[in-house]
Protein 1
Amino acid sequence: MYKKFWVLLLSCWMLTLSAMAQNDTTRPVEMADGLRANGKIYVVVMVLVTILAGLIFYVVRLDRKISRLEKENK
Amino acid sequence: MLRQTWWKILCVLLLAYTVIGGFLGPVPAKPIVNETIRNLYFHVAMWFSMMVFLTVSAVYAIRYLRRPNHVDDIYSLEYAKAGIVFGTLGLITGSEWAGFTWGAFWSNDPKQLGAMIAMLIYYAYLVFRNGMPDIDKRARLGAVYNIFAFAMLFPTLWILPRLVESLHPGGLGGNPAFKDSDPRMAAVFWGGAVPGWCLLGVWITTLRIRLKLLAEKKLSNI
């Protein structure tokens, strides 16, 4: 009789242990996985690459203009 | 080096790697910061680039003081301006990031205050220079002030924030988010972001230097 009681108590305790562990591990840190799964993060990357390309294009144009001025003033 | 193309192409490739790798690459999942950890490639890279430009600026200031030469003065001034632009962007992006992770856009964090003081010292450098009509005096005193401003970067950015409690990594107690730096992030940060943003700043600075030299040449021809 007592043995059964102790087994029950031990198993209950183990259940709470696993429940406690679940509290820590089953709630993962929220990351933009959904966004990535939907493939939408690529939209952000595309927008940023466009902005970067635009800025670089602008700087390249400026570089060319200054180079031309330098040549004319030689 | 000033007019070569290879490093400009390298700059574009590194920045493309930073943006694409920075958004699609793996990052550790950390509470509170979540995906904003990717700001490391942009916000922190601004400060690293700023340190590089301001160091170059101080070196040219020392060169000027050793042997006065107006070209060195132009280099010193333009690199300081690039450092000021990148530092200001670092301050703004840091505030934006803090607004969504630390809960306030400005929380008087020691490093925020230190960075603000360092920036104000450099803003004063530009005002101080422009306040002097005499070109040689402006260059000489500007160079002296530049070295002082550069020396002030170390206590304000590197030493004082580490001696007290700070939300930034490196302080006492410190920010647990960056305790263990992730090697996958280090590749994009050191391999792409820092050299990429540095080269972009150098590119813009060399353009400004070339423009200034051209303007001077034109003035002397008249």
Protein 2
Amino acid sequence: MSQTLFEKVWNDHAVRELPSGQTQLFVGLHLVHEVTSPQAFQMLRDRGLDVMYPERTFATVDHIIPTDQLQRPLRDDLAEEMIVAIERNTGDFGISYFDMNADYQGIVHVIGPELGLTQPGMTIACGDSHTSTHGAFGNIAFGIGTSQVRDVLATQCLAMSKPRVRRIDVRGALAQGVYAKDLTLFIIRRLGVKGGVGYAYEYGGEVLDRMNMEERMSVCNMSIEGGARCGYVNPDQTTFDYLRGRPKVPSGPEFDRAMDWWKSKASGADAEYDDVVDIDGSGIAPTVTWGINPGQSAAVDEHIPAPADFPESERSGVEEALEYMDLTSGRPIAGIPIDVAFVGSCTNSRISDLREAARVIGGRKVKDGVKALVVPGSRAVRTQAEEEGLHELFLEAGFEWRQAGCSMCLAMNPDKLVGREVCASSSNRNFKGRQGSPTGRTLLMSPAMVAAAAVAGEVTDVRPLLN
Amino acid sequence: MTHTAAQATDSNTRVKINGRGVPVRGQDIDTDRIIPARYLRTVTFDGLGDHAFEDDRQSADPPHPFDDPRFSGARVLIANRNFGCGSSREHAPQALMRWGIAVFVAESFAEIFFGNCVAMGLPCLTASAEGVSELMAAVEEDPSRELAVDIAAQTITVDGRSIEATMPSGPREQLIKGEWDALGQLLAARDEIAARAGKLPYVRGFR
């Protein structure tokens, strides 16, 4: 019997077993950003420790970036202090740092793959739960806390317990107007927000085989929203074609050797999994969240459910969600009015996301009274979109066209909801207060559905707009 | 900068923790609620305790348990299912610890939150829904009740009644022995780390 990718990569990186029974795991790539690292660098200084593999460590700044103007000093003194700290820390410890003006500036989970830092067969860690994004390339990538950031800086290792592996097999084909985002929301709805606790997810099947790398990244990105600490797709020709020619990917004979090694890491055809879930991708519709966690979603042509539709143990959570969202059971999902439309975040801010949003808009205009913004995930995405003229289409429609950053996904920068605003958002979390207003409301959906909502001023099915 | 061996163990151990409880009811309480992102605009963890559950506290009616004077000084946070889900921010357990929490008991925890807590020496014990419900009722009825959390015996005792509250053996042993700070152990394998790295073709640039 052959092994899964997860087992192979885990074994390749296992340094030894620790007394606790955990594995000391070597980390091949450590990505660092300004929010979860300053305390870790301070812990190193307190203990007189160095960074063990600075050449395997790359840093950037993304969460606090103001996307309306990239100018130092930042208007927010606290944010400026964080940038100064990461500049000093990366300088003192000899770590490569992509600053606000670098060609590859952007969200850490967008620029890692763009640079070709993210590769198959690696272990990747970052002090950010959406590190699972990188698993799209066929590696083990997970989010860690600040004490673990310290551990990786000092030792390039983590103390980890080995999770089980669940294969999620997606058959069929996604219909027109149905995207990677809809698939991932569907999976979380089906398996629950804690369904993945203790598991690594392997996504596969016809639907994943046909996806491009950006779509695979959107799926892996939200693994953590389903409770799984990491998710991955086996590397294939699509992966290798994406990587060829990227700045940090070897070229010439080294690329061929790399490709052979990467291929050897894919799960064997007869690999055994701890659990297998089978999903019919053809049956998925555009999906929208109505609640306060990413598992509380429904197809755009469904209605808001009632607490009684759920098992007893979930009812109080549903009641809490409906009250916070001010939505009534039985009303259609379509037609929920929105105030803000946000295309962006590490889930959906890549060029294919922007192209789909642009395609929906066509020559249409953003509805009066709706604030709409497009925030590319990186400077490279922004440049590419401008070369294709997408920015003009967005601007003419009434969208704001912003600089790259995390923006309105998490409100650590000036982009925030105000009061009870409802936001159609291509981001990953609809938690209470997530988008910066303690009473703000988030409806998660695909970038195409966000564009459709921006035009209609309410949640609307994107499918008729694509015909 | 020179390498010096990090402190492998803390002189403190986590075997028994006694204290009053504070119930934080609700499923899937995420780290954005525990510490809203705007308070992450900092380069230290100082002062986070003041902002634990800030937005929930502002909007709570009746007052949030963290604002209820009967629960001030509580050390045992009692929660429901999937506590600490969402972001990897260690700021969440740091905020709760700085508010005064020393141990968590819940129906279940999100994985990264659990790992962050263990790395900080904060035990996270899992009890059944009935067990959690009983503990919540006990401290709500009389907030002055003392809970005796025994991490080694995996029990929480209140008013002479013991409730089972478990933790996986690995992290439990780490806490009991005072070895939750993994850094010392990881550093001790310096040669093995280099050997492992040397076998990875990508570390050598596939040359």
Protein 3
Amino acid sequence: MRRQAAPAAAGVFILAAVLLAGCAAPQVSSLVQQRPPGLAAKAEITAVPFFPQEDYQCGPASLAAALVHAGREATPESLLPQVFLPGRKGSLQAEMLATTRRHRLVAYPLAPRLEDLMREIAAGVPVVVLQNLALNWAPQWHYAVAIGYDLESRQIVLRSGVTRRATMSLDTFEHTWARSGHWAMLALPADRLPVTATETSFIAALAALERVAPAAAHAGYEHALQRWPGSAAAQIGLGNASYALRDLPGAAAAYLRATFDHPASADAWNNLAQALHELGKREEALVAARRAVDLGGLRLGTYRETLEGILRQP
Amino acid sequence: MTVLFRRVMAGFLIVCMGGLTVPLPALAGIVGTDTVVAGAERERLASVLDRSEVRVRLQALGVDPANARARVAALSDAEAAQLAAQMDELPAGGDLLGAAVLVFLVLLATDIMGYTKIFPFTRSAR
């Protein structure tokens, strides 16, 4: 009897130990094993405001914290009509981004990397995250704001729910975050580039901002062009934002620069043609419009319409 | 097929009845930045249909009409398309202390405490 009890007890002990220790998460493990160059071992942004959430309202509460930190006025109550969906008792990711843009801020979706999340925090930018606190087949979706981390103690610090400074094991966080597809976003004034920004994602974020807040997007394109001077999309975007603000000379100048740097960009030629046409410069407009049609491509139909529009008016 | 037909008819009626409440952002002759970035142009009618559908769904989920219109206007074309296609399936973050059954709370607790030994088990059980 006693001989059998010992291995059984050992088994229970080992099982309990394994259960309590949990299992390390992949991104955390690799970050802890070899900290990437330039990544601080720990950081925390203590100035991020906190709005304790009421029922189901972690979306508006988390977003309000990020917006206020970025210099905008917002409260969870003021955001309810913009982002809360009563019938779903929650907030959709797309509307978290859209509401940020309605506050004239760039809504930048982060790459699904814990390292990027940490780099943004270390640079002083709080990160709104979506977690599934439960399981894939029984989800418990929850927004929180990541404001700090410590790689040595393997912990993350969040503004979360009713807890101002919620600490969570980084491993557990990674698992809950992975179940949302590692979804995270920043809310930043357009003149401030995220430290982990990539050209494609940032210009796409500005393009989405442009339809709601063209003036803010205009400032964003100017800053993007300092970082990526040759970006065709940013050059055209700068022109489009000027055009939306009815600054036709500014728009034409931006498109012209795009055609210099990217003579094969039919979009740039087409938009230049339209801006010149509206400025009353018919001959130049015709040259640009014909160039766009000659280059062709997916949007040949649009280029032809532009050309015909110019030809119609003597 | 019928779904497509219904959507086209709905869009047609919306336009016909002067209820074209969604502003068309694209201006004459200008290729929009979102189009430049995406590389491909979303058909204008498809975008209008997506947006009117999202607006109707938002209202059905308790958003008042004026707010629904403003919310739709702030979406990008891609977001509008995504919401039109799967608004009911997409995660809606917010249900932190919601209507959780006991078993669920137990799972949540184990999840938060040591969780990782439980999660692979639930995954493999599927």
Protein 4
Amino acid sequence: MIITIALRELRTMFLSPLAWTVLAVVQIVLAWTFFTQMDYFFALQKELATMQNAPGVTDLVAAPLLEVASIVLLMVTPLLTMRLISEERRNGTLSLLLSAPLSMTEIVLGKYLGIVLFLLIFVLMIALMPLSLLMGTELDLGKLAAGVLGLSLLLCSFAASGLLLSSLTTNPVIAAISSFGLLLLLWIVGRNGGDSGDAFSYLSILDHYVPMLRGIIDTADVAYFILFIATFLLLTIRQMDAQRLQS
Amino acid sequence: MSDKPLIAVNNLVRYYGNTCAVDNISFELRAGDILGFLGPNGAGKSTTMQMLSGNLAPNAGEIRIDGVDLFDRPGAAKAALGYLPETPPLYKEMSVDEYLVYCAKLHRIGRRDIGDAVALAKSRCGLESSGRRLIGNLSKGYQQRVGIAQAIVHSPRVIILDEPTVGLDPIQIREIRELMVELGRTHGIILSTHILPEIEAVCNRVQIIHEGRLVYSAGLDELLSRQLSGEYELTLASPPPLDSLGAMKGFEHVEALGDNDFIVHTSIDAQTLARRAVENGWGLSRLTPHERTLEQIFVDLTLGDKTGRAPLKTEIP
């Protein structure tokens, strides 16, 4: 049942020009980043040849690409998640799901899985760029895999928070702005100049993402993302149940 | 008709903030019933419907659908339910076929039966030739049909329709009414509307809700029998003065509608009344039983307190 809802969600996204536009724009921006990083790598090649333990193409091209991708998608994901629930509420289509024999958990997870599948298409498209280098050189595939896992977890977290904020309002624009604000705040909250051990730094999404780009998968970071996703999904389910009493 | 009611509602209460939208409503729906739910705007019709369909949670009370409590086992209860809200829940970017298949899947119809279920729902709602069209491109009337098809695609035992004929042309309205009568033979239907003739044409029971309370509940046959209640409309070419007419033996009360038209409340039957009119040379040109229509009952009940007239005696089981 979750999959039925998810697949409809995914189909709907591709039926609207929004998904195609977003895919295209993100791809163009990241392709340009990829291109300039390649250029940078070639320029540095002479110096790299003389260095010991020199950073490879994975560090100089793939990691920066994934970092830029995370910032671009921080801005784009709220636009994709904004209509998930708010628009259905506004158009009155939510009552189709609510009067069908489905639990609130199934509805929320179905919606979530739909957007996650879409975001994984992004991850795949982005990962293809560094992977294309395999034709001419060797990559540190382990490091790349860690980075791709990091980006996937990051996007799943973005989607979960966007879903909650979409369930709080009937206006998609408000949902988009508030989830963008929330993500941006969580992004910059670690950069307060203090030591990295404090609570703010633990809350920061960025501090849990960047190590993965360096190939370090810390269970604390993975746990952070999983807790983040679970918290926002649970809050969404609670929120949707509560709205049956309030609205 | 089975003994077990399809819907049993007990003491349902719903507040919006401090406003009480639905105040202690109880009723039952049995198989073969088409229950008309009537009320002015804002009376609590849609709220009640939304609670029955699980879209809103009540503040107090109990709803059983086909014997299953809606709050203890919502999945099982909702499986027996088809619901068309005021605005049909249509995904405009999907085609009619895709949409109905999706609805069938949501209601857990087996993969093999989906094709038949969708085809049946489409033929019942006259959508055979629109299967591949996008819902967004359909006219309002056809969108309404898709909404009804969505509510019946899984052959639920209970169908709840909130103003199903809004926006339809007269021919479509007739078709939808025929469909409701047909569905009503095997399913229980709750129909909310403020189109009174629709209730008279389709329903066999009627409930009037006003300011959140159930103020009238009766079978339609009961209503029709009550229409012949000793009131007659008379048109007289040369009527006597109103006073002397009122003083006639057996006349309880006479109202003058115009110079020649009167309503007589009387205990004597039509035959005697006609003979007396002829004997007295009143020039009787018309004698009809004065019908208390649903519309009058509705107006009496919902405006009764404002115009100072006492509301009708109500019969709430």
